[in-house]
């Protein structure tokens, strides 16, 4: 991995890390969404998948505008959390327990993504790149909405409702 010594380089690193995470989500998240039996949670996960498609397109456009390749090195944190969710799918039967486990795994992904987008917002703002800042801020806000919905599903399912 190349060293980062400027804000511009840090923004490229943010872009590449986020784009790789969205790519992993697009590749591996559909099976997770399909494994959930709770219809509300399933809807939230499918919405997150649709949002990931939009975010990936926006990140690709930003990379093009900046003249950089939007995908960087492996995104190990996202890979690990997806591995966790897929492990749950192999060891637990479909139903409320699996739904709870998958909500936990997805919330880890959402929160890691939210924090990463927040960092990108700060960097873009410091660089006075309003288009990048707005792209990152919209993604952060969508992830915050996903977290709120998933948290509500977690407690509703755990309560047996």
Protein architecture, described:
- This protein is mostly helical and 161 residues long.
- It is 83% helix and 0% strand.
- The protein has helices spanning 7-35, 39-66, 76-91, 96-126, 130-158.
- α1 (7-35) packs antiparallel against α2, α1 (7-35) runs parallel beside α3 (76-91) and α1 runs antiparallel to α4 (96-126).
- The radius of gyration is 16 Å and the shape is elongated.
- The chain starts with 6 loop residues before the first helix and ends with a helix.
Net shape: elongated
Strand content: under 5%
Largest sheet, in brief, is: none
Total DSSP helices: 5
Q: For the CA atoms, what is the radius of gyration? A: 16 Å
Low-confidence stretches: none
Distance between the termini: 48 Å
Helix residue percentage: over 70%
What's the helix-strand series? Answer: HHHHH
Mean pLDDT: 91
Kindly state the number of beta strands: 0
Derived from helix and strand composition plus strand pairing, the structural class reads: mainly alpha
């Amino acid at each position: 991995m190349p060293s980062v010594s400027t804000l511009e380089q840090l923004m490229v690193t943010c872009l590449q890390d986020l784009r790789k995470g969205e790519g992993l989500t697009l590749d591996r998240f559909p099976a997770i969404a399909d494994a959930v039996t709770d219809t509300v949670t399933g809807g939230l996960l499918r919405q997150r998948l649709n949002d990931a498609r939009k975010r990936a397109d926006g990140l690709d456009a930003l990379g093009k505008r900046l003249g950089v390749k939007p995908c960087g090195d492996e995104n190990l944190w996202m890979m690990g959390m997806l591995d966790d969710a897929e492990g749950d799918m192999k060891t637990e039967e479909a139903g409320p327990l699996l739904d709870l486990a998958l909500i936990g795994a997805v919330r880890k992904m959402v929160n890691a993504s939210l924090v990463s987008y927040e960092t990108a917002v700060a960097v873009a703002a410091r660089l006075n790149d309003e288009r990048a800042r707005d792209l990152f801020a919209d993604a952060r806000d969508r992830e915050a909405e996903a977290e709120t919905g998933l948290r509500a599903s977690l407690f509703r399912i755990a309560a047996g409702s």
